[in-house]
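Good morning,

Attaching, inline, the backbone tokens for the sequence recovery test we're adding to the shared suite. The designed sequence is right after.
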């Protein structure tokens, strides 16, 4: 049994609202993620979850888009 997802700490981008950040990520980077707060009872809002059960070409396209995250995240106002 295995899992095809990972939680990513996005606090370095000033994220205080993981839902807002996931919406921004889809709109500005073109990659979908799930707010990590969906998986915790605790007040956790600095994690997002990526799912990897996709075709290789889809994952490679997502990696290409995510390579711009550091530079574009400067525009993020969360």
């Amino acid at each position: 049994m295995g899992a095809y997802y990972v939680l990513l700490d996005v606090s370095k981008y000033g994220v205080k609202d993981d839902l807002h950040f996931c919406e921004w990520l889809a709109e500005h980077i073109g990659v979908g993620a799930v707010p990590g707060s969906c998986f915790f009872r605790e007040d956790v809002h600095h994690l997002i979850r990526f799912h990897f059960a996709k075709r290789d070409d889809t994952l490679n396209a997502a990696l290409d888009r995510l390579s711009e995250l550091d530079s574009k995240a400067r525009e993020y106002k969360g």
